[in-house]
Amino acid sequence: MKKVEGGVTAAEGFQAASTAAGIKYKDRTDMAMIYSTEPCAVAGTFTTNVVKAAPVKWDKDIVKNSAFAQAVVVNAGIANACTGTEGLGYCKDTAKKTSELMDIPEDAVLVASTGVIGKQLPIDRICAGVEQMSKKLSGDLTSGHNAALAIMTTDTHEKEAAVEVELSGKKITIGGMCKGSGMIHPNMCTMLSFITTDAAISKEMLQEALSSTVTDTYNMISVDGDTSTNDTCLVLANGLAGNEKIKEKNEDYETFCEALYYVNEALAKMMAGDGEGATALFEVKVVHAASKEDAVILSKSVVTSSLTKAAIFGHDANWGRILCALGYSGVEFDPEQVDLYFESAAGKLMIIKDGVAVDYSEEEATKILSENEVTAIADMKMGEACATAWGCDLTYDYIKINADYRS
């Protein structure tokens, strides 16, 4: 597997465009389009929130029932959530406009929105934006990069990743972009993520590959404990790489899954590290747990602990908060067996052994916790299972950002 430059336009046959439609923001681009020159197999995962935005409902239907997909239209600023039949109608209007301009079926057009909940989309601006973007579509990396910039809300930077692998003697590429900074919590897909690939793979295998990789990537991150109404991850595969089509779980399928996992993990970590107001990516590894389920629960319990997140912001090795979060997770374990380490680019340090603090240097611990990527490792000594969760520190700026988000 080879990491390459780019995002959604890295794979052959995919184009992108962006525009400033003036939906909410007045000083930046706020719409993006992804288009494939060929029809694509499509797969998706979506929010588990009972309150689902109109685009989620629209896309779930297309993923389940459409023969193929060929375009994705995304807007930032207004979420089109809690907007009733009118909001769902705007999804259809967007798809209809795209269909007319790109000469593709309406049910081949996916839509996605992110932003403020409860406001109706200015559909005239949306349709005007679609028309503008239809004339600017390009397969160059810059267009893909600009699309990643256009879908941001409170994100501080764009998020892209791409890799190349070989399937049945052919080079295939998987690239993606995402946005996500707040209202991020596990057990869904997590905000908006769009993956493109020129691999030839059946719709059934594509869905299985996505669902399997989401479990240990997007479903293992949390910023603030809030699961969005709009969480969507879409994968489009147009087959232009010319590999032997993947129709079953064979060696090519496993290789494809590894590459897809890499892209999704990279994007998931970017979102966790760019949590609203965050100064550090906080990684929690639980090792030697009794079961995979236990490891997942334990790691998520620590990464979502507000007190632990605050300690990470303060570069404070307050290990009692981590042991406490493990303890209220609901998993049974012996606290007098647990070892805990902190690790970063500045080094690795054992903090507790068998549930009791060792004679460690607070100065060294602070140095380790002052890096922009920090890991806590909890060794449960209960079995062979492990899991990793990602989050971020909790800062003053998180409150500032969310206190006046609508304005």
From TrEMBL:
Q: Which residues bind substrate?
A: 153, 179, 190, 276, 402, 407
Where is the protein situated, by its record's location annotation?
Answer: Cytoplasm
Main subcellular location of this protein, as a coarse class: cytoplasm
Biological pathway: Amino-acid biosynthesis; L-arginine biosynthesis; L-ornithine and N-acetyl-L-glutamate from L-glutamate and N(2)-acetyl-L-ornithine (cyclic): step 1/1; Amino-acid biosynthesis; L-arginine biosynthesis; N(2)-acetyl-L-ornithine from L-glutamate: step 1/4
Which InterPro entries does UniProt cross-reference here?
A: Arg_biosynth_ArgJ (IPR002813), ArgJ-like_dom_sf (IPR016117), ArgJ_beta_C (IPR042195)
Instruction: Please give the catalytic activity noted in the UniProt record.
Output: L-glutamate + acetyl-CoA = N-acetyl-L-glutamate + CoA + H(+); N(2)-acetyl-L-ornithine + L-glutamate = N-acetyl-L-glutamate + L-ornithine
Active site per UniProt: 190
Which residues does the annotation list for site: Involved in the stabilization of negative charge on the oxyanion by the formation of the oxyanion hole?
A: 114-115
Per the record's keyword annotation, is Transferase included, yes or no?
Answer: yes
User: Signal sequence: where?
Assistant: none
What EC number(s) does this enzyme carry?
Answer: 2.3.1.35, 2.3.1.1
One GO MF term attached to the UniProt entry: L-glutamate N-acetyltransferase activity, acting on acetyl-L-ornithine as donor
Keyword terms: Acyltransferase, Amino-acid biosynthesis, Arginine biosynthesis, Autocatalytic cleavage, Cytoplasm, Multifunctional enzyme, Transferase
What are the transmembrane regions? none
Q: What is the similarity comment for this entry?
A: Belongs to the ArgJ family.
Assembly description: Heterotetramer of two alpha and two beta chains.
Q: What does this protein do?
A: Catalyzes two activities which are involved in the cyclic version of arginine biosynthesis: the synthesis of N-acetylglutamate from glutamate and acetyl-CoA as the acetyl donor, and of ornithine by transacetylation between N(2)-acetylornithine and glutamate.
Please state what the protein is called.
Arginine biosynthesis bifunctional protein ArgJ
Species, as recorded: Roseburia amylophila
Give the gene name: argJ
